[in-house]
Each structure stands twice: as structure tokens, then as C-alpha cells.
Amino acid sequence: MFNAIVQSMLLSTALLGQQGPFQEPFPAHRVMGNLFYVGSKDIAVFLVATERGHVLINSGFETTVPLTALSVRKLGFKMTDVKYILASHAHSDHVAGHALLKKITGAKVLVMEGDDKVIASGGKGQYLYTKSRWKPCKVDKVLKDKDVVKIGSLKLIARKTPGHTPGCTTWTWPLKAGTKTHNVVIIGSPNVNPGYQLVNNKAYPKIAKDFAQTFKVLKGLKCELFLGAHGAYYGLDAKFPNLKKGKKNAFIDAAGYKKYVLFKEMAYLKTLKLQSR
Ligand SMILES: [Zn+2]
After folding, report:
1. CA 85 → CA 55, 88, 215, 226, 244, distances in Å?
2. Cα(179) to centroid of ligand 1, in Å?
């Protein structure tokens, strides 16, 4: 119970955009190949670098954007070379920094249908977090499930994994590292948050069906390189020391991915069962 309370406190702190432990710096690092971590502690922001320009997945809070900019420069890249800004889902801890990031980079913002209006309006229309607001950000293109974001030879596939938010997005693509190719999955979020109503939800009637669809999609994805919108999803704190010790495949974890998805599906089904009584 105590844990649940602390967790929901952390979550509401994060969602309201206040200072919290999530906003501390985290070392910028190469995940593998041309994929880099440029987020803060636990709030994952990924940079995919190409010779034709780069992609940033998530912006974090407005207050963490400077940390991301610092990480990008530390890795030897230019913020002005970022061409696209993508998102995991329209909650403040992943997209409140979009407007500032767009201003700094001049990049185009691409968002999955269902989350586009929330980002464009600066937080209006969210389920449950009705008071959470951030700077509105122009959305240049609205994506649909299986749309591909192309830049040079890079092709990032957007999978709609709704429920956590209506336009929650899981990003997947084959990543080349040396002579090998590893399939990346960056989970948008499979979480049924505290307070989420799966049954008779007037604000989000399809929520249970959407979560069911998400687990179907996630279970169908091939995943070797397991990542997510928060470091905690994929065990960043436990895996990062291995990377520092020189283990190049520190984030390769097909079994961990499968286990995580099944665990989250069980949690969803448990909540659904409890609320259906
Ligand atoms: Zn969220």
C-alpha cells in the first residue's frame, strides 16, 4: 500500500510538471548503433542519428529539455540537425517539452492520432489528468498505426498501442549495428495508472478494448533491443552499469521484453476483473 501511495505521489508530481527525482540528469549514452539515450533520470528521450538528420523520441518536461540538449551536444550532435520530434504518449512527462524542443531544433512534430489534439492544445482533453497543462505545440503531421517515419535509410514504424492514452505509440524498427541487425521496441506505455477506470468509463469509453489491442500488438512484435518511455520499463538502472563495464549488448533482452509485456497484461486483466464485479 505504502509503495502504491509513493508511486502515485511520484506520478502526480511528474504529471504536474513539478521538480521531482525524474528530472535529475542521467549520463548520455549510446544504446547501440545510431541509437542514443539523451533523457533525464528515468524520463527516456532517444536520439536516432543519421547523416540526413536526426530524430528525437519524446521531449520530457520543458525543464528537462536543457538536459537533453546538453546530452545531444555531448554526444557530438547538433540540435539544429534534428528533423523530427516523435512521442511515446501525450502525458506531460513525455511531451510537455515539445514546444521548446521544436523552437530550438526547428524540427517537425509527428503525433499518433488520438494524442495529436492533446499535444497541440498543451494538455487539454486528457483522460483523468484534466488539470495538467503545458505549452501548446504545433503538430505538423498526424500519424496512423503502422505509418513509417523515413529519414535517409532509417525507417521508424509507429505502432498505435492505445489505452494508457488514446494515441499511445510504440516505436519499432530494425537497427543495424556493425554486421548485425536487432529489432528495437520502445514501449509507449502498457500501464493502467492509479485511478484509471476500465469499466463504464464515460470519458474514455473504449479504454479496456484499447488496452486489449495494445497487448495484442506488443505480444506480436519481435523485440531484441528492449526500451521504453521510462527507464524503469526496461530496467535502465540495472542495465546501464553493464554498458559502462563494456558490455555492448547491455540492452538486448528479448526474454525481458516478453516477461514485461505478460506481467503488464496480467496487471491489466486483474484490474479489469476487479472493476467488473
Ligand atoms: Zn503516461
Report:
1. 6, 11, 25, 21, 28
2. 36
Confidence of residue 172 (pLDDT cuts 50, 70, 90): very high
Q: For residues 17 and 267, give the distance between their C-alpha atoms in angstroms, rounded to a whole number.
A: 26
Matching residue, cell 500501464:
191
Q: Cβ neighbours of residue 159 under 8 Å, at least 6 residues apart?
A: 145, 146, 169, 170, 171, 172, 217, 221
13 or 84: whose pLDDT is higher? 84
Q: Where are the alpha helices (DSSP H) in the chain?
A: 2-16, 65-74, 92-95, 98-105, 116-121, 207-220, 231-234, 236-244, 254-276
DSSP reduced 3-state for 142 = strand
Cβ(95)–Cβ(87) below 8 Å: yes
The secondary element (H helix, E strand) that includes residue 111 is strand 108-112
Among the listed residues 49, 54, 110, 113, the one whose alpha carbon sits nearest the alpha carbon of residue 81: 54
Residue 137, pLDDT score: 98
Share of the chain above pLDDT 90, in %: 90
How much distance in Å is there from the Cα of 164 to the middle of ligand 1? Answer: 6
Q: Output the pTM of the full model.
A: 0.93
pLDDT-derived band at 60 (thresholds 50, 70, 90) equals very high
Question: How close is the Cα of 95 to the center of ligand 1, in Å?
Answer: 10
- What pLDDT is stored for residue 13 in this prediction? 42
- Write down the pLDDT at residue 67: 96
Q: Give the 3-state secondary structure percentages of the chain, helix then strand then coil, rounded to 5.
A: 35, 25, 40
Residues with CB under 5 A from ligand 1 (ion): 91
- SS3 state at 86: strand
DSSP structure class, residue 25: B
What confidence category does residue 215 fall into, taking pLDDT thresholds of 50, 70 and 90? very high
* Bridge partners for 176 per DSSP: 181
